[in-house]
Amino acid sequence: MRRRITSIVATGAAAALALGLSAMSASAQQQEWVIDPGGDYTAVSGTTVLTNTANGVTLNCSGSDASGTLQSSASGTPAQIGGIAGIGFENCSGPLGLTFEVTPQNLPWSINGESYSDGVTTGYIGGVVANLAGSGCDATVEGAAPGTFDNASNTLAPQPIDGSAHELVVTFVDPGANCFGLINEGDVVTFEGAYEVTPGQDVSVQ
Fold first, then answer.
1. pTM, full prediction
2. What is the pLDDT of residues 30-78, one digit of tens each?
3. Helix count (H) and strand count (E) of the chain?
4. Which of 187, 194, 190, 141 is nearest to 161 (CA)?
5. Please, what is the Cα angle at 43 between 40 and 46, to 5 degrees?
6. Which residues does 116 contact at the CB level (< 8 Å), separation at least 6?
7. Distance (Å, rounded) from C-alpha 128 to C-alpha 191?
């Protein structure tokens, strides 16, 4: 009889734990994001930097501008809170004085929120595909760029974030224009910039 009671208690505890975990999971999935005012936006950054983490080689662009649309609300964790419909890069140069053209592909890229604290949203820009082309170089970068959005400065800032599962990877290098061996397939790269968004936005989690 004691064994049966123990079994019933253990079964009940397991069921309660399962229900609790399910409720927590559902709660996380139902997290509500509010973006005010949302809608169409433009964004401008000064210098942007693409860094090959395999060797420290950088590609610097003197400026970048972007445009797209932000949702007024979204649900989930992560949640897609907007998109980048267009983005351009100016005066891009790399090592040895080489100049490059950066051509975005697979637009729109998604803007995704994962966590929120004290007016700062942490997330990532997803669906990124960009071709880098210059003298003796033709390469493609794909993946997701982690970053933040700060309500106080209205700044969307792609940047490396410790512990982020998101990364950009070199998926193609033309054998006939192999970038002098400075970029290789499989290399992980980081993207950094500071895009001031207009009109100003306030992102929060309810």
1. 0.85
2. 689 999 999 999 999 999 999 999 999 999 999 999 999 999 999 999 9
3. 1, 15
4. 190
5. 175
6. 33, 122, 203, 204, 205
7. 11
